[in-house]
Amino acid sequence: MTGEDRFAGTAPEGAVPDETPDVYGAYPRLTDEQITFLAGHGTRHPVGPGQVLIREGDQCTDFYVILSGSVAITEHHGTPDERLLRVHGPGRFLGELGLLQGQLAFYTAHAREAGEVLALPVDRLRALMARDPCLGDLVLRAYLGRRAQLVGAGAGFRILGSRYSPDTRRLREFAARNRLPHRWIDLEADQEAEALLRRVAVSPEDTPIVIWREHQVLRNPGNAELAQLIGLTPPVPDRSQNDLPVVGCGPAGIAAVYGSSDGLSTTVVDAVATGGQAGTSSLIENYFGFPAGIPGSELAERRVLQARKFGTQVRIPAEATSLEPDDGHYRVTFADGSETLCRTVVLATGARYRRLKVPGIERPPRVSVAVDTEIREVRGDDVLRSNVVEQTRTVEQTRTGERRTVDVRALFVFIGAKPCTDRLTGVLALDDRGFVLTGDEAEARSAAGVWQGQSRGCLSLETTLPGVFAAGDVRSGSVKRVASAAGEGAMAIHHVHDHLDHTTADPTRPNGDIQAPSGRSAAPGGDPHASATHDRR
């Protein structure tokens, strides 16, 4: 029987007093063979009582295995709010998902008594995980479980703000979508809010705030500022160059994995979080290979780790604001002013669920259905109390317009999705709903001479700009499913290689002067349909 199979009241071999039981597989004990294998690539170090191995707020560069003694995992170490989270004994290893992703630590790990640990650089651990799939799966499953437990325990930074504040909701959504350990303190309802505001010398009017490690306080930070605080994404140069940026990190963003594994220098960016809309699903049950289903957030984390393994650079949050041809390449500019020069681009920006634009909808809603009816207003204070609905039924060609109030406690909103293509108007041809046209439809809307200069036709996932591809929900005519989006992401990389293999300069015009569908240089703004009827002889 392994440590994972034991009940909480059973002390496994090698356990120390008060050791946290491994009930859910998040704290496995390595076998002697696995420790011997790791020892051949690491260094043994003696540790003394109280010695800190991992400090909250610092970036950890080593993977630790406990050889003797025990290690405590605490939050707010050395402060009046210190809290014990876990205790580990010999055979267990330290760390959680942030170690593999390069994030700062959300906890402190310190020795409880004299002992010995084995230390390996994280880069070496990644290489060993790739060589030994059993070890890699063991560590990955443990780290995913530990991240989930940190999130559930409310460890990490604190968000203090009003439930009615859009910025509070924005920060909470950003933290939740990226599975960042945090705790929300309700300005109106939590008793500790007032005392905490006094301690950090912030007035209620200046909320929301983010508090970390007691002395770090951010007042209404942007998502990028919060990401920088916890090391979610590494600093990037103002100007960079690579083969392929993948814009969007949803299921179609799997293109980043295939791009990197094929030897292309690849960067994947997303304005909010990994996973796209699929990442918000509590359980995806129809994705092939996962008969018991898989949470969307876990699927997203596995994709990112896999992409990083092949050398993909991940930037979150990073909002792409423009796409322009530049001397035979494409220049992608981001909201922070940085830009990257690339040979090809894959657009996987997906679509966002439409919001019900009625007064009061921002209050916490909850589900009822009525035919021939439209919601005009929702009412309530801290919870939903009622809806104002209008009859849309037509009687003798006249809309009745009758309004009534319905007492409800919940409302389910499912009114479709809007493609994330606002920045692409005038750059690429879009259909009448705003989705990106590709393949034959894109070729029919391209500026004259574009494809003759490429000595080939428009590929099935290619847009009106040669070398720019669209995959997943953002593409017109795509099947809005996780599996199909992932398949299109993989197919897009095949097209990328086709494009690079067949790229030729057009001698009739200056190098790189690629035209947008409107017939001018591709840049934001303008009419994307101006050349829809050009002569394609």
TrEMBL record:
Keywords: Flavoprotein, Oxidoreductase. SUPFAM superfamilies: cAMP-binding domain-like (SSF51206), FAD/NAD(P)-binding domain (SSF51905). Residues 26-129 form the Cyclic nucleotide-binding domain. InterPro entries: cNMP-bd_CS, cNMP-bd_dom, cNMP-bd_dom_sf, FAD/NAD-bd_sf, FAD/NAD-binding_dom, Ferredoxin-NADP_redctase_2, RmlC-like_jellyroll. It catalyses: [thioredoxin]-dithiol + NADP(+) = [thioredoxin]-disulfide + NADPH + H(+). It holds the Pfam family Pyr_redox_2. This is Thioredoxin reductase. It comes from the Bacteria. PROSITE patterns: CNMP_BINDING_1, CNMP_BINDING_3.
